[in-house]
Amino acid sequence: MLSYAEENYLKTIYHLSEESEGKVSTNSIADRLDTKAASVTDMIKKLSAKGVLSYRKYHGVTVSEKGRIAALKVIRKHRLWETFLVDKLKFNWDEVHEVAEELEHINSSLLIKRLDEFLAYPKFDPHGDPIPDENGEFKEKPQVALNLVKIGSSGIIVSVKDSNNVFLQYLDKIGVYLGAKIKVMDQVEFDGSMEIMIDGKRTVFISKEVSENIWITD
Amino acid sequence: MLSYAEENYLKTIYHLSEESEGKVSTNSIADRLDTKAASVTDMIKKLSAKGVLSYRKYHGVTVSEKGRIAALKVIRKHRLWETFLVDKLKFNWDEVHEVAEELEHINSSLLIKRLDEFLAYPKFDPHGDPIPDENGEFKEKPQVALNLVKIGSSGIIVSVKDSNNVFLQYLDKIGVYLGAKIKVMDQVEFDGSMEIMIDGKRTVFISKEVSENIWITD
DNA sequence: ATATATTTTTAGATAAGTCTAAATTATCTA
DNA sequence: TAGATAATTTAGACTTATCTAAAAATATAT
User: Fold this and answer.
1) pLDDT of B129-188, one tens digit each?
2) Which of A47, B48, B72, B134 is deepest in the core (most CB within 10 A)?
3) Chain D bases under 7 Å from protein CB?
4) Strand C atom within 7 Å of B139 CB
5) Which residues constitute the domain of residue B193?
6) Contact A118 B85 (CB under 8 A)
7) Is residue B83 part of a domain?
């Protein structure tokens, strides 16, 4: 049984280990959780004692199989709740993250089973991230970041990789949404910014930073 | 801003003050929360410092107006979630209490506003208890405990006053549910037990303890 | 009305989670 | 590869919420 704080650490460490393929450093965890390295050291000791992380002093942590299962349970809950908020309660995609951060810690397997059923077993959340099933299994849609796409090619937006309110509100403003058809019109070599056409209707310029966070069908 | 634990204390103290009309003793709070009197003393000091209780040493506490508002917010959330679980997720009425105890502490006014809307502004929860509106206002249905009803009279069950699983499962078993028509057939003076007819179909014997917790239209 | 019983509070301890400051280890660079 | 810099850990302190045991106040009963 993991506490609220332990679940948050584990989930974050799992995400970091997916991003960076391997060991996760104390400081990267502290940065992501907006806490201090000393607190992280304390917590990773506890989590490795519980068998969800493996830890070698001064060399960061990796997530164990047991930890992966536990992390995916929390992520499953988070993404199901986000889907509920958008599909049933008419939240915008930029309004769901904070609330889902709280809801993900509610402990009831019946609740999650029934919620999943109520939502008709969704496979992706409102940002296009896959929702693990009760066994922690899921599949990503084949996808590629927009900044890696050649000029002239097009695809459908299948996910956005940053759930920050400001980013999502910006996407709303320029008319980018999951399912939109994107064609890359031009890319500036100097700064990596690009011009894209949305749904064949309108073109907008986006920075490299933005294009890295928009992923389209491969 | 109240913490999780503070919200639980305040809600419980509010319920106790409603039951007993007035001052609430340290021990009654400890009993209800399954904690120790010393812990309660600590907490009521904190809560009176925050202005939600008024406290005189050795003489128990009363809930202030500010406290009443805060308590009713938690109760509103609890009862809306219970309604959601039963109406949308097909929980039985004996399965909702524990989960709602967790969900009631989720902090998002948008969430509660939208949940209320989604449930079509319910006025009563699955046990017949009234759901306060966003201003903390609500009205009880005119109702009376079954044990106080005269032999021969009848009414509709409008609420059950105990949310304990075992009690609710017992009611299921004998066919008692909110909205059922009850006629009091007989009452035994010796122990207060009674024979009731349910929906004009079937009669059952119930103890005084049970009849005190079933309330019908006045 | 006084002794006894009950209730409540205080004092001091514990656990979880966090912090700052200092010490230690690892990594980078010249 | 040695010294400087960066990352990490340790030590000690704080807060919240809890507990036990003892002290103090209130209530009860003869």
Assistant:
1) 999 999 999 999 899 999 999 999 999 999 999 989 999 999 999 999 999 999 999 999
2) A47
3) 7-12, 16-22, 25-27
4) no
5) 143-217
6) no
7) no
DSSP state of B94: T
The average pLDDT across A28-45 equals 98
State pLDDT tens for residues A120-134: 999 999 999 999 999
Last residue of a domain, one of B17, B37, B63: B63
Q: How far apart are CA A173 and CA B45, in angstroms?
A: 50
Structure tokens at A173: 């403003």
Considering the domain boundaries, does residue A79 fall inside one? no
* Residue in the block written with tokens 């084949």: A142
The total number of structural domains in chain B stands at 2
Kindly provide the ipTM of the predicted complex, given to two decimals: 0.92
Q: Collect all residues of chain A within an 8 Å Cβ-Cβ radius of residue B114.
A: 89-91
CATH code assigned at B188: 2.30.30.90
| Domain boundary residue, one of B48, B63, B78 | B63
A9 close to A43: Cβ distance less than 8 angstroms: yes
Compute the count of residue pairs across chains A and B with CB atoms less than 8 Å apart. 42
- CATH number of the domain to which A55 belongs: 1.10.10.10
| Strand C contacts in B 28-87 (CB under 7 A) | 28, 37-38, 40-42, 44-45, 55, 57-60
Residue A213 lies in a domain: yes
**Cα separation values, A108 from A126, B26, B157, Å:** 23, 32, 30
Strand D: list protein residues with Cβ under 7 Å.
A 25-28, 37-38, 40-42, 44-45, 55, 57-60; B 3-6, 9, 35-36, 38-39, 42-43, 46, 57-59
Q: Which residues is A156 bridged to in the sheet?
A: A181
Note whether residue B105 is domain-resident: no
Strand C bases near protein CB (under 7 Å) are 7-12, 16-22, 25-27
